[in-house]
Amino acid sequence: MSQLKNARRNAEIAKIHIAKSDLGLDETAYRTMLKEIGGNASSAKLTPAGRRKVLNHLAALGWQPKGKKIGKRPHNMQRGKGRTSRTAQLEKIEALLTIGGKPWGYADALAKRICKVEKMIWVPEDELYKIITALYKQAQREGWDLSGE
C-alpha cells in the first residue's frame, strides 16, 4: 500500500473513532453500525468505499470533524450546566420503556419516525430529548405510573 493511501486510510479510521466518541456510541451500537453501513464490523477492515459510507452516515447523524483547537477544553469536558449526558438520557429512555412495557424496538421505531435514523442508539445526543418527550407524552395518554421514576 502506498504511503499516501495508507495515510488516507489511517486518517479516515481515526475520524471514524473520533466520531464514535463524539456521538457517544457504545461498542455494540458502533460495531452494528459499521457492519450495516460499511459492510464490516471492524473499521480497520473496511474498504475505502465502506469508510466513506460510514463517515457520510456519521455526518448525517450530526457529527462534524473539528479542526485542532489550541487552549480549549476537550469535547467531553464542555458540558454546560443543565445538560444531561447521553448515558443518563439512554437510561431514562430505558426506564420509560420498562414502565410502559415497550421493547427497545419501539424506541427504534420512534427514532426512525422522529429523528430519521434506523436505530435509537444512533440518535445524536442533542436529539435524544425528542425520544424522551415522545415517551412522556405516551405515558400521559396511556396513564403509565411514573411515580417511581
Description:
Residues 70-81 have low confidence and may be disordered. The chain is built from six helices and no strands. It folds into two domains: 3-66 and 73-77, no CATH class; 86-142, no CATH class. The protein starts with a helix and ends in a 7-residue tail after the last helix. With 149 residues, the chain is mainly α. The chain is elongated.
Into how many domains do the coordinates divide? 2
Give helix % range.
55-70%
Straight-line distance between termini: 55 Å
Would you identify the regions where 5 or more consecutive residues have pLDDT less than 50? 70-81
- Describe the main β-sheet briefly: none
Calculate Rg over CA atoms.
18 Å
How would you spell out the order of helices and strands?
Answer: HHHHHH
Strand content: under 5%
- Counting helices, strands and paired strands, the structural category is mainly alpha
Number of H- or I-type helical stretches = 6
Q: How many runs of DSSP E, i.e. beta strands?
A: 0
What would the principal axes of the Cα set say about the shape?
Answer: elongated
Mean pLDDT: 84
List the helices and strands and how they pair.
Blueprint (H helix, E strand, L loop, with lengths): L2 H21 L3 H12 L9 H13 L25 H15 L3 H12 L12 H15 L7
